[in-house]
Amino acid sequence: MPTTTAIGTDAGALLEVERLAKAFSVKLGLRRAKVSAVEGVSLVVPEGSTLGIVGESGCGKSTLARVILGLYAADDGQIRFDGTPLPARKRRPRKVVEQMQMVFQDPYSALNPRASIGESIAFPLRVQGIGKDEIRTRVSKVLEDVGLHANYAGYYPHQLSGGQRQRVNIARALALQPRLIVLDEAVSALDKSIQAQILNLLKDLQETYHLTYVFISHDLNVVEYMSDQVAVMYLGHVVESCSAEALYREPLHPYSQALLASIPSLDPTKRKLEEPVVSGEMPSPLNPPSGCRFRTRCPFVMDICSEQPPALAEAEHAHLVSCHLHTSTQGG
Ligand code: SF4
């Protein structure tokens, strides 16, 4: 399998993902076919850090998030949380469910329009059997933590702005006192100025509560701002994985180079590449290219690229890349 290793060490890791795979069955006329959404993904996320996951729509990053959270069962691979392997198909222990929370993209649909903000935040606490007084205390505390007055508990979603609603969603995730929060395009639906406020809030909360984030986004500027480590995904595989500093200074995979070259930067001197080089459409996951999955869009494609999938291997210290330009002697 091409993507089987991960940067970082197990020491201090809160989340470890090893060779994770998830496929879906889809109907094609009269027959059914398997579509691989995530394949052979390995990641290590140290406690208190942020792992950014980037890639175009359809690269598998949201599916990966849902498998990590247990919303989809993994077909293969292993997830360990704080050193403990999690069951792929059985219900996870309550303590683990509490400690792994998610914030979704759309702050509007993530809240029940008929429930007050207080009720929405309290709901998962009631499900976990927490007493009334403790719930009231926690609701007020998390609202204040996200910059809203405790009075907002009595408001309804339609009375709030988009930014306030996303603050409420973050408060709801915080209420169970998690250690890991998966943020799936959590600021993508917000205006730029509100985005900045929410990103700063997330950073403050991380520092206060020593939170660990998996931060998923298609927006590379936002990922650079938030992340310690970054994994770049393409068609269900991690193609590059390293520190955010290394990726944004010198991306090694042609896909990462194309992504970085195509984003507007406030500081053009930071970009080594000047022209967008990503071209063509992402191939259908129903019929992915042989060998390297990026070869149909890669400006550096070679004969070996269609014959052999490149392994994800260390090209530089703590910098993994899956490309025959860097790892041709280790492909397989
Ligand atoms: Fe391009 Fe080949 Fe590298 Fe794939 S393995 S990214 S096709 S050079």
Ions, cofactors and other ligands present here are: iron/sulfur cluster
Order of helices and strands: EEEHEEHEHHHEHEHEEHHHEEH
Q: How many domains, in number, for the residues?
A: 1
Residue stretches low in confidence (pLDDT < 50, at least 5 long) are 1-5, 270-277
The coarse overall form would be globular
Strand content: 15-25%
- Tell me the major beta sheet: 8 strands, mixed
The helix content, as a percent range, equals: 25-40%
Classify the fold: give the CATH topology.
Answer: Rossmann fold
Task: Please give a structural write-up.
- It is a single chain.
- The chain is α/β, with parallel strands linked by helices and 332 residues long.
- Helices cover 31% and strands 24% of the residues.
- It contains eleven helices and twelve strands.
- The chain has helices at residues 61-69, 94-99, 117-127, 132-145, 162-175, 192-209, 220-226, 244-249, 254-261, 303-307, 324-327; strands at 13-28, 31-46, 50-54, 76-81, 84-85, 100-103, 180-184, 212-217, 229-234, 237-243, 313-316, 319-321.
- Strands 6-7-8-3-9-10-12-11 form an eight-stranded mixed sheet, sandwiched between helices. A four-stranded antiparallel sheet has the order 2-1-4-5.
- Helix 3 (117-127) crosses helix 4 (132-145) and helix 4 (132-145) crosses helix 5.
- The longest helix is centred in the middle third of the chain and has 18 residues, at 192-209.
- The chain is globular and about 65 Å long.
- It starts with 12 loop residues before the first strand and ends in a 5-residue tail after the last helix.
- Residues 254, 292, 294-295, 298, 300-302, 305, 310, 323-325 line the site of iron/sulfur cluster.
